[in-house]
Amino acid sequence: MGAVPTSIFNISSLQGMSLTRNNLSGNLLSSIGLWLPNLNVLYLGGNNLIGIIPESISNASKLTSLDLGNNAFTGSIPKLLGNIPSEIGNISNLVILTLPQNGLIGFIPSTIKLLGKLRILDLSKNRLQGSIPNDVCQLKNMGDLRLNQNELFGLIHECLGNITSLRYLYLNSNKLTFAIPTRLGNLKDILEINLSSNSLNGNLPPQLGSFKVATLIDFSMNQFTGKIPSTIIGLQNLVTLSLAHNKLQGSIPDSFGSMVSLEFLDLSYNDLSDVIPKSLETLSHLSYLNISFNKLRGQIPNGGPFANFTIQSFMSNEALCEEIKLHPMLISYQQ
Predict the structure, then answer these.
(1) What would the pLDDT profile of 179-208 be if each residue is shown by its tens digit?
(2) Same domain, 171 and 68
(3) Is 0.85 topped by the overall pTM?
(4) Widest CA span in the chain
(5) Domain final position from 192, 207, 225
(6) Strands laid side by side in the 199-203 sheet
(7) Would you say 232 and 258 are in contact if contact means Cβ atoms under 8 Å apart?
(8) What is residue 316's predicted lDDT score, i.e. its pLDDT?
(9) Which of 74, 107, 125 is the last residue of a domain?
(10) What integer pLDDT is reported at residue 322 of this predicted model?
């Protein structure tokens, strides 16, 4: 009860402090981050603290776990800036590490491999650079890995396929290159995988069909070539599939009609040819379709969900024709 005692902030060696649910009141000391250089953990949630969160808290560079919830703070939240300290590996019992949107720079430290109990790692929406260290592959218990929206480059390591506990893998919006490693097919329990907005190339691996419980696959905005693998027939739980803005060729597999859960399908801006499979008429849950800017030809199906699609779904193809309900005219696209 009362204010946070200022004498605590004279303990420069202090590494962790938990004062949750203690009826504390008043403001936090404005220099809190200047006098606790070794602080890793700060829990002040569930009190009656007021005022602004001091900007100096950004200077506590070793801080990895912070709880200020259920208080009465006002103003903006200062951002935990700078590098991820290598000492992060010392918190060996850490289960969840989330540091998204904090302006973090530098590299992911190799000591991350020491966090063997980690189940969630979210470093998204920062400015991290360098390659994804293969040390991440040592985190055998991890179920959720989010490194998206950074400045990471290089390849996706084959060893990521060894983390068979992964359910969510988000590496999108980086500068990753080379092909998708075939060993990712080992992630048979993956629910969501997003590799979009990189510079990945090569063919889509047939191991794509191993993601049998996946609900979201987004490989858009890359440089993939070749055909869409026929093994995609196994993805019966898939809700969202985007392969847009690549260089895919060949036809749309007729087996797409077996993906009965599909609601969102975007194959636009590729080099796909041949006809639109009539089997897509069986996708009763399909509410969004975009196959524009390809080289498709022939008749547009008119059964099932196609009755609800507009001309925008089929624009700029080689020679498609059909009457659309919302557009009572013959539509023919010529490039």
Answers:
(1) 999 999 999 999 999 999 999 999 999 999
(2) no
(3) no
(4) 80
(5) 225
(6) 153-154, 175-178, 199-203, 223-225
(7) no
(8) 95
(9) 74
(10) 61
